[in-house]
Structures are given as structure tokens and as C-alpha cells.
Amino acid sequence: MNLNRIFDPQNKFWSFMEKIMNLCVLSLFWLVFSLPVVTAGASTAALFNYTLKLAREEEGYVWKTFFRGFKSNFVQATVLWIGMAVLGAFLVFDLYCCQFLPFSALKWAARVVLISLMLIALLTSLYLLPMIAFFRTTIKRAVIHSFVMAMGNLYVSVTILVIYAAAAAAVYFIPVLFMVWFTLASYVASHLFNHVFLKYMEDVNNIDNNPA
Description:
Layout: H1 3-6, H2 12-34, H3 40-55, H4 62-72, H5 74-97, H6 104-134, H7 139-152, H8 154-173, H9 178-209
Helix pairs in contact: 2-3, 2-9, 3-4, 3-5, 3-6, 3-9, 5-6, 6-7, 8-9
């Protein structure tokens, strides 16, 4: 047995363990920077700033990459995060109010419409923070591009949703590691985000570099 080969830093096992360690450290950064709650959007965008690069084998230092992403995307990510929270609360409140509608058929029609809108909003929101971590774009165009990508790659969007659902299930069984499950899910999802973003990269860059 070649011991030099076993302890070689380029060994696949040690490379894998290094990734796991970096993701655990990233989880801690994400949790700490999300604690004020209002900064959770910027913290999540910073997380994706690292995981998207890690999925492309382009990762650098965890702290440097995370903090750079947090600082550069702070305003956009915070606005999008608050916007998503407000929209979600509005749709949930509307769904609750459906029970007070006068006719049963009207209640069900309104519920179907609202649940459909909630699903579209949820799938679109999955792309928003990874989008601003990957592209340099405006808030308005990030929303438009995210909607187009979510709907245009529906099977990928649903797969990403399932990944986060699995992470939520893991949180239920081992809640103390919730930030680790979220980071691992984001890393797995980043492979799919990269696949979608690279398909649209030329179009998005052309639009954003040539504003109307």
C-alpha cells in the first residue's frame, strides 16, 4: 500500500472531506450573518456566491468568497428577501380570507388560483438569490429572469424544490443541524442552478449590458 498516495492532499477522499469541512464552515457563517433576520437574504446570496463556485470547482477561501458576496449583494438581496416575505404573507393572507367568500364554488376557484400563484412565486423565488450571486443584474431583471428560468426549466425547478424539501425533512429529524442541511441542499442545488444559468448566460448578459 502506498502511504504517500493515501495522505496526498489531491486524493479524492481528502478533497471530498475538505469540501464537507468548507460547507460546515459556510453553514456557520450563513447562520451568524442571518441572525438579524433582515440580513438573511444577503447571507443566503453570499452562501450561493460560494456554493455556485464550489459546484464548478472554482471555489476559493470560504470567508473571503462569502464576505465578498455578502457585501456586494447586500442591497439587492435584502430588497428581494423583504419582497419575497411580503408577497408570501400577502398570498397566505388571501388564502386564509377565501373561507369568508359567500359561495363554495367561488371559494374553491379562488383557492386554486391562489395556490397556483403561490407555487409560481415559490419556484421563482428559488432562483432569485442564486441569480444575483451569479449575474450582475438589476432587481427588476433578476425577478424577470428568475421567472423565465423557473418556468422554462420546470423539471429542474421542481427537482430543486424536492432537494430543499428533503433538507426540511432532515431538519425535522435532526433540527440542531438545520443550517448544515440547508447548506448541503444549496450546494446540491447549485449544480442545477449552474446548469440553467449557463444556458441563459449570453442572453442575460446581453440584456443587462444593453439596457432599454
